[in-house]
Write a structure and sequence with these properties.
Elements (H helix, E strand, L loop, with lengths): L12 H19 L9 E2 L5 E4 L2 E5 L12 H14 L7 H5 L2 H14 L3 E5 L2 H12 L5 E5 L4 H9 L3 E5 L4 H9 L5 E7 L11 H10 L3 E5 L14 H4 L8 E6 L9 E5 L1 H10 L1 H4 L6 H16 L1 H20 L11 E7 L1 H13 L2 E2 L1 E3 L9 E6 L6 H17 L12
Bound molecules: pyridoxal-5'-phosphate.
Length: 414
C-alpha cells in the first residue's frame, strides 16, 4: 500500500513513515465514522436539485433567501463579466479594485448603517483579518466556545491569548473580562451560531466589552438577510445601534447568494484594516462581476421583504410540526434548525435513510461540533414550500420511528 514516487525514485524511510502516518489517520477517521467527502450536486442551487444523478429535495444550503440562482443576479454577473472581464487581475491595493467594488462597499455600509464597509474574498479571510489586526501578539481575545473556526484561527494566527466562555454564557464572558485587568483587546462572537442556529446575547456582550475597553466583533454570517425587520441581522434583531467598538462581519455567500464577505464599522477601523489586514492586502480582489451581482442581490434583499417573511413563516411551521412529532429540535429562531442525535454513526445512518427517501440533509459530526453532539443540520430557505416541509417531516418521523435512535440529552433539546 506504499505510494511510490511518480519518477520511480526511492523514498527515504523517514518519508515513508510520514506517508504511513497520513494513511493511518485517514483509516482512523473511517473507523470512527468521521470520514468526509464532498457530495456532487448538479445544476443551480435550490430546494429541488440533483445529487449523484438523482433528484432530491435539499435542506442543507445557506442560500436562505433563494438568491443564489436568481435570474436577475445571474444576469448582473454576466453583464459584469462583459464589462470587466472575469478576473480582477490583482489585489485591491495593486490594480484589482474597480468602481463595482467601491459601489458595493458604499451600499453595504449604507445597508448596515455603518460609516464604512470593506470587502474580503471570503468570510474566513475577513475574520482572520479583523482578529489579527485588532488583537496583537499576547493580547487577550475572549470568544464563545462555539464560535466559527475562523474566529478561533484568527486568534491563533495572531498569536493572541485565547480564552473561551461557555456557549452564550454572559456571566462567564464577563468574569473572563473582569479577570483580564484591561488586557482584553477583542471579544468575538457569532451572531447566529452556525451549527446550533441560536443567537448570542449581543447587548450584554457589547456592554461588557465596552466597559473593559475592548473591541467587539460579531460574525453575522447567518443573521444578515434573515433576522431583523430589515434583514440587517442579529444586531438589528437585538435593537443594537452601531457603536464605535462594534465591528460586524457579514458573508455574501449565504443569504446574499453570491460569494465573499464584508466588514462594516467606523472609518478608523476600516482604514486600519486596509493598511494592516494581511488577508485583505496579500490576495487577489474578488471578480468585479461578482460585486455587480452582489449589488443586485442586496437590492433584492432590501426590496423583497416577502422572502424574509416567507422564511420566517416556514421556520415557525417547521418548529411547530417537529415539536408535535417529538423530534429533537434545538432552541433556534433562525433558518438553521438542527435535530440533535449525539452519536456520529447514527447521524450518518439517519442522513442516509433520508436520502433513500429523496431528502438531502447533512449529518454534522465532530470536529465541526463537540464530541457526542452529532446532529442533522436542517436549513430552510424562502424557496421551500410548506409541501416541501411536509415531505421532510414525514420522512423524519418515519426514520425516527424505524431506527433505534436514543433520546438525546434533555438539556440540549427544546
Ligand atoms: C460560513 C461562515 C464563515 C465563513 O464564510 P465564507 O465566506 O464561507 O468563508 C464565517 N463565519 C461563520 C459563522 C460562517 O457560518
Amino acid at each position: 500500500m506504499d505510494h511510490p514516487d511518480p519518477t520511480g525514485a526511492a523514498l527515504s524511510p523517514l518519508f515513508l513513515q510520514r506517508q504511513r502516518r497520513l494513511r493511518m489517520a485517514l483509516e482512523q477517521r473511517r473507523t470512527r465514522h468521521l470520514y468526509r467527502s464532498p457530495s456532487t450536486r448538479a445544476g443551480p442551487q435550490g430546494p429541488q436539485t440533483i445529487l449523484d444523478g438523482r433528484p432530491v429535495l435539499a435542506f442543507c444550503s445557506n442560500d436562505y433567501l433563494g438568491l443564489a440562482a436568481h435570474p436577475t443576479v445571474v444576469e448582473a454577473l454576466k453583464r459584469g463579466a462583459e464589462r470587466y472581464g472575469v478576473g480582477s487581475g490583482a489585489a485591491h491595493l495593486v490594480c484589482g479594485h474597480t468602481p463595482a467594488h467601491s459601489a458595493l462597499e458604499v451600499e453595504l455600509a449604507e445597508f448596515m448603517g455603518a460609516e464604512r464597509a470593506l470587502l474580503f474574498s471570503t468570510g474566513y479571510m475577513a475574520n482572520l483579518g479583523v482578529v489579527t489586526t485588532l488583537a496583537g501578539s499576547g493580547e487577550l481575545v475572549v470568544e464563545d466556545r462555539l464560535n466559527h473556526a475562523s474566529l478561533v484561527d484568527g486568534a491563533r494566527l495572531g498569536d493572541a491569548r485565547l480564552r473561551r466562555y461557555r456557549h452564550r454564557d454572559l456571566g462567564h464572558a464577563t468574569r473572563l473580562l473582569d479577570g483580564s485587568a484591561g488586557s482584553c483587546a477583542l471579544l468575538a462572537t457569532d451572531g447566529v451560531f452556525s451549527m446550533d442556529g441560536d443567537t448570542a446575547p449581543l447587548e450584554g456582550l457589547q456592554r461588557a466589552a465596552a466597559r473593559h475597553g475592548a473591541w467587539m466583533l460579531v460574525d453575522d454570517a447567518h443573521g444578515i438577510g434573515v433576522l431583523g425587520p430589515g434583514g440587517r441581522g442579529t444586531l438589528e434583531e437585538a435593537g443594537l445601534a452601531p457603536r464605535s467598538n462594534l465591528v460586524v462581519m457579514g458573508t455574501l455567500g449565504k443569504a446574499l447568494g453570491t460569494a465573499g464577505a464584508f466588514v462594516a464599522g467606523d472609518g478608523l477601523l476600516i482604514e486600519t484594516l486596509i493598511q494592516e489586514a494581511r488577508t485583505y492586502i496579500y490576495t487577489t480582489a474578488p471578480p468585479p462581476a461578482l460585486a455587480e451581482a452582489t449589488r443586485v442581490s442586496l437590492r433584492l434583499l432590501q426590496r423583497e421583504d416577502w422572502r424574509r417573511e416567507r422564511l420566517t413563516d416556514l421556520i415557525a411551521y417547521f418548529r411547530a410540526q417537529a415539536r408535535a412529532c417529538a423530534l429533537p429540535v434545538l432552541p433556534s429562531a433562525s433558518a438553521i434548525q438542527p435535530l440533535m442525535v449525539g452519536d456520529a454513526s447514527m447521524a450518518l445512518r439517519i442522513s442516509e435513510a433520508l436520502l433513500g427517501q429523496g431528502i438531502w440533509v447533512t449529518a454534522i459530526r465532530p470536529p465541526t461540533v463537540p464530541p457526542g453532539q452529532a446532529r442533522l443540520r436542517v436549513t430552510l430557505c424562502a424557496t421551500h414550500t410548506r409541501q416541501h416541509l411536509d415531505r421532510l417531516l414525514d420522512a423524519l418521523e418515519q426514520t425516527w420511528r424505524r431506527l433505534p435512535i436514543p433520546r438525546p440529552d434533555a438539556e440540549t433539546v427544546e
